[in-house]
Design brief:
- By secondary structure, this protein is mostly helical.
- It has 2 domains: 85 residues, Rna Polymerase Sigma Factor, Chain: A, CATH 1.10.1740.10; 73 residues, Orthogonal Bundle (Arc Repressor Mutant, subunit A), CATH 1.10.10.
- It is elongated and about 75 Å long.
């Protein structure tokens, strides 16, 4: 057992004492990190495994025996945590950034212009002023991509009701957003 950890600290750790957990972390985090790093080969993943190790140790602290050296126990938890993270990462499909097409939606794009942001805000504001039932139809149709029939099924209302709510909502939106729809020179 490390000279920095005594039986009283281990006993406090077993009771879930925050200070004792911090003390164990200060003394054994380098050991756990080095084991995790050997398994995953990546600094950020090893750090994640180290954090997960001490979280698991804290959750299972009551099962640790006073008088035992915590190093082997923490090392075992750390190795298992690193293996779990390595398996999780292996399941994730990855592609080199250089291989991604320029139009890939996951790539960072230039921010929209202030004018486009203003227009989007105007549209959201106009939608928010609609009757609740009409707003729901617009949301399902335009934001969630449902057809009128799918909206009818989802809301449990007749197809004609969905169509009439959609028509009314779009008529109101067209009126309220006329200034957004006008050609650029007439704004």
């Amino acid at each position: 057992m490390s000279a920095d950890i005594d039986a009283a600290t281990i006993d406090a750790f077993r009771r879930g004492d925050d200070d004792a957990v911090r003390q164990l972390y200060r003394v054994y985090s380098r050991l756990v990190f080095s084991i995790a790093y050997r398994v995953v080969g990546d600094r950020s993943l090893a750090e994640e495994a180290t954090q997960h190790t001490f979280l698991q140790a804290w959750r299972n602290s009551a099962s640790f025996e006073v008088g035992r050296d915590p190093a082997p126990w923490l090392a075992t938890i750390g190795r298992r945590a690193a293996i779990d993270i390595q398996r999780r990462e292996a399941r994730r499909p990855t592609t080199a950034l250089d291989d991604a097409p320029p139009d890939d939606p996951g790539l960072v794009a230039e921010p929209p212009s202030a004018e486009l942001l203003w227009d989007a805000w105007q549209v959201r504001e106009a939608i928010d002023t609609l009757d609740e039932r009409e707003r729901e139809v617009v949301r399902l149709q335009h934001f969630d991509g449902y057809t009128h029939q799918e909206i009818s099924d989802r809301l449990g209302v007749a197809l004609g009701t969905v169509k009439s709510r959609s028509f009314r909502a779009h008529r109101v939106l067209a009126e309220r957003l006329r200034h957004v729809m006008e050609p650029d020179g007439q704004r």
